[in-house]
Amino acid sequence: MQPPESYEKYLDLQQYIDLNDEDLRRIAAVRERLLAHSAPIIDDFYTEISRHPQTARVITGGNSQIAQLKFSLRQWLRQLLSGPYDSDYLALRTRVGQRHVAIGLDQVYTCVALSRMRNGLIRLLSDTWQEAPDELLLTIQTLNKLLDLDQAIIEDAYQAAFLAQSQNLSKENLQLRVALEREQRSTHIVGNSEAMLEVYRLIDRTAATDKPILIQGESGTGKELVAKALHRASRFSGKPLVVINCAALPESLLESELFGHEKGAFTGAIASKPGLFEVADGGTLFIDEIGELAGGLQAKLLRVLEDGSLRRVGSVKERRVNVRLLAATNRDLAIEIEKGRFREDLYYRINVLTILLPPLRERRGDILQLVSHFTGKSWNWDSRFMEVLENYSWPGNVRQLRNAIERTKVLAEEDTLLAENLPPEILRTGSELAPHKPGSEADLETINRSHIADTFKRYSGNKARTARALGISRRTLYRLLEKHAIE
Ligand SMILES: Nc1ncnc2c1ncn2[C@@H]1O[C@H](COP(=O)(O)OP(=O)(O)OP(=O)(O)O)[C@@H](O)[C@H]1O
């Protein structure tokens, strides 16, 4: 079976996910261990999806499809860990996606189950392969790269299978699925800095308008999250929110994704397909990375925004849609206009109002709250951990912070996050810039206190171990704890 045409973007998979020889060596080194213990993880995957009421019927029926699905999942795991990541790999994943769709499994549940599976694999790695912590961390990063790619492929396989079924499914049904998928992901925005309060105020104030809104900010600052919040606050909230990222697709595919195509419009267009504007009809379309949109598509987009009309690729028929547009960019569109890369008229259309998301390094006060949000209640950390985080520059913004926390959780012993388990680049730079260097206003007493308190906390209040670690007697430790009022 051929992978769907939209998979052109994955053609050179290895390059797409930036896998190098070292990555492959690392995965090869742990492959047998992961495969030998994969059965409970695969069972867990099916336990998770069997919770879905729609699929409970199929799963509990002892249907032979389940055995088949488990078999293909094992096959997939073997191939994920062995490569090569070529069109056979895509075809295999596509078949799994199509089978899931055929028996009514929801994309949402598959994605939830896949993320459980990711946790299971990472836990397994951490449990059985602790001899070289640095290597372990790098291996987890490689595994995450592979799983990120795989998740993108399976999400696409669903979209493609749904769209292929769209002649049978009613449009509402299709919209519901897309909406459900988007809703499922966490939409809670965290942060109390002045800049974020302004963002919340703008979201509230724009609730009543149907006009397009432009969200501007560096990668990972939460633009998609804000788009979801804008959609939820709007009168379209009961309708679908459809998301497309212009940077992820080449121009020709993007055109057909956005505006649809007719059968025979180009080689491989074996059936007519509605574009995302049609799928989002009556709801919201969020166009991410709009600055990447090529000139011809900018003109076509302008036309939909002006009068709601569009033509599918290869069709002369005018169609009308009513879609609320949200757009995001990490480029400065004013500069793009100056350079002749973005149409000024389109800019004024989409930029009725701009929400500016500041980079994390300009709202370091939010870091603590974000860390609590990403860890949940059961985790602690020492002050050194927070110090490093607060001093790092976060070029990848909140996404990078979230990933760093996830990795530190995996490597933590018990329930305390330690600075030394942070990714090396963060630990190095965050430590260099940390306070207490010459010129810092912190006095010696304060430094002493925080060092003692940290150590005490790291050893969970065990005085003998704390005293040993600090190289002082227990009596001295008692005195210092009392003096500094450390409990
Ligand atoms: N203020 C925030 N509160 C909680 N989570 C956040 C916040 N900002 C970002 N995140 C999380 O960080 C990750 C990246 O966010 P998101 O995808 O919205 O960023 P983005 O700006 O759209 O990135 P890109 O430009 O790369 O697409 C997501 O997991 C999101 O949930």
TrEMBL record:
It comes from the Bacteria. Pfam families: AAA_lid_14, HTH_8, Protoglobin, Sigma54_activat. One of its GO terms (biological process) is regulation of DNA-templated transcription. CDD domains: AAA, globin_sensor. Keywords: ATP-binding, DNA-binding, Nucleotide-binding, Transcription, Transcription regulation. GO terms for molecular function: ATP binding; heme binding; oxygen binding; sequence-specific DNA binding. SMART domains: AAA (SM00382). InterPro entries: AAA+_ATPase, AAA_lid_NorR, Globin-like_sf, Globin-sensor_dom, Globin/Proto, Homeodomain-like_sf, HTH_Fis, P-loop_NTPase. The keyword Cell cycle does not apply. PANTHER family: RESPONSE REGULATOR PROTEIN PILR, TRANSCRIPTIONAL REGULATORY PROTEIN. This is Nitrogen fixation protein VnfA. It comes from Bythopirellula goksoeyrii. The gene is vnfA.
